[in-house]
Amino acid sequence: MTEMFAEGYTYAHEHIRNSKDRMKVTDDVIVDVTQAHLDELRELYKKGVRNIFEVTTKGSGDDPRYTMDIAKETGINIVLSTGFYKEPLLPEYFYKMSEGDIVELFVKEITVGINDTEYKAGIIGEVGSGRDIITEAERRLLAAAAKASVETGNTPIYTHASYGTMGLEQIEILSGNGAMLNRVIIGHQDVSYNPQYTLNLLGRGVYIGIDTIGKQNYITDEQRLSIVLKCLDAGYEDKIVLSMDISRQHNMKFKGGIGYSYLLDVFLPMLEDNGVSKAVINKLMVTNPKTWLLGS
After folding, report:
1. Cα separation of 101 and 130, whole Å?
2. What is the pTM of this model?
3. Which CB contacts under 8 angstroms, 24+ apart, belong to 142-146?
4. What pLDDT digit, counting tens, does each position of 236-249 carry?
């Protein structure tokens, strides 16, 4: 990561390189599409995007050299992460690691560098759990994330909550192991439509990620809009971040997908058309991710 948050719009949850090694192998994963990324991220830069939080995990193709080359070529500040995903997509070596081993790895990648490079993680994430369940391995992962956060001065944590579930349970594990909830984002609160559950999470003091914008195979963007509006009406404009979670080539423009700029070109105008002011949009896209990342 670069040390400074660059003032400007921020995509809070993306995968610049994503092989999902233990998933069914397809040609659709995001690997070796350098020119496509350069084209799209340069377009984002022209439209005011200055930061991307890159949350690809161990065993899913994290490649800091590739990612930081993209950052250098486009001018976008890409903040790297350390973490493991969820079962059944944890690498085999995870199961040989104790909780202490996981903490040690996270701390090393935050303070020394990722994958024996000089590039350090600024985020722990995305660390996750499955739909309607937290397995013992996932519980160990979340506990380790919390402890590594504390050991490194409250490094922020971004979780993967499959289909928006188990967020409250994630909060209990994280807070029970010392994590500061104002440095936690519970992700994917727009993969299923359950605004009351999202409000319950916000009531615990965490941030929430509306971070699969444009993926209308889950819910529609009109439903995502509804979730955001309900959260804003309840007074949580300081606790929401936005992103698209682009994780497949078919999401990108060179393969006919909606592309990264969809959030700016389509969803932000939807917010404005429904009465959300530019000042509030600035909070969602600039102030909130900055405050979560830096803790101030």
Report:
1. 22
2. 0.95
3. 142/170, 142/173, 142/174, 142/177, 143/99, 143/173, 143/176, 143/177, 144/99, 144/100, 144/102, 144/103, 144/106, 145/83, 145/106, 145/174, 145/179, 146/173, 146/174, 146/175, 146/176, 146/177, 146/178, 146/179
4. 999 999 999 998 88
